[in-house]
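REQUEST ID: PR-0412
SUBMITTED BY: lab tech R.K.
PRIORITY: routine
TASK: structure prediction, single protein chain
INPUT:
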Amino acid sequence: MKPKVLIGVTGGIAAYKSAEVVSQLVKAGCDTRVVMTESATKFVGPLTFAALTRQKVITSIFPDTASGTEDVIYPHLYPATEADAFAVLPATADAIAKLANGFGDDIVCCSALSLKNNCKRIFCPAMNTQMWDQPVVKENTRRLLRLGWHQVGPEMGRLACGTTGYGRMSAPTAIAQIILNSVF
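STATUS: complete
OUTPUT:
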């Protein structure tokens, strides 16, 4: 049986790198699904992920219709309750804060609340260096680690905003390999 991987894409410029992660997971034989925050759709379109996964991409906690199968009526539960691994990339400062404090006001965070206890949880920070250095972001990151999440990155490098420092999302190949190692 193929491992089920759920990717949560949030609204940061590094969202474009998540398409390569998804592609690598599909090529490796994972049943890969994608959920996206509304702000993520401003950076990469859901159609990109639908084409890569051949699966519907979920962008809202509310169903598209009032009838249908479980995954149609309860997008905040399915596919999250079936995932073997869940990765949030890029994990923005906003997403990290919401995940660390149990918010469920978007499909990515609500999916995180619906995961089974043994699901592997991975987050891949990506943000401006000054944002990454904020004490509240560091505290929220530590909280996620205490809650059993696995952190990948960030790395040092040139950021989209023109600054150089920590905040760059890890390479898609490295992220995909860590996800694969967690399910195989």
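NOTES: The first strand starts at residue 4 and ends at 9.
REVIEWED BY: pending
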